[in-house]
Design brief:
Number of strands: 5
Strand content: 5-15%
CATH class of one domain: Alpha Beta
Structural class: alpha/beta
Shape: globular
Largest sheet: 5 strands, parallel
Strand order of the largest sheet: 3-2-1-4-5
Radius of gyration: 16 Å
Order of helices and strands: HEHEHEHEHHHEH
Oligomer: single chain
Amino acid sequence: MPNNEYGDFQTPLALALQCLRILEMPDNARVLEPTCGFGSFLEASAAIARSSERVGLEIQEDYAVQASKWGDVRVRDIFNTSLPDEVTWKSDAPLFVVGNPPWVTSAELNRMNSGNVPNKRNLKGAKGLEAVLGSSNFDVCEYIILKVLNEFQAHSFTLGMLCKTQVARNVIAYAASGVFRFQVRPSTASTR
């Protein structure tokens, strides 16, 4: 379980570097880390893609200050920010949305009396009791990934997020249902 109401777990730099190597990020990439914390993925992007344009969003001001060493970091609440409206780019280089969103459920946040909870809505179109009960405890990481996919569906981008296996399955199943208007292009990267 995370150690605070933000689902706070800082990704080790070595892990962020390995993740970005798998994505084969070009040197001039545009990189967005929507919940950047200390900015591990921004720092890894600076090391791998030295000419990249890097933007991070972070709700905790102290973390944002630290992450700003690696890019343009803004103090924002991911749940109340329209990503395409918030982030403007200087180039049209390939876009990579990367990171490690909080691995916490809404029930865990509610037990902590957290104010850092997404607006409750029936994002997946659940019916009846499932909508009232089963879907009310959702994973915040899944919510953020679906938000990214929804808000950037008109853009060409590569998504590289760390998440639980079940979250990945849920996201893939939801995307396969046809709700998004984008094409999934499998990575040519090796996963050795």
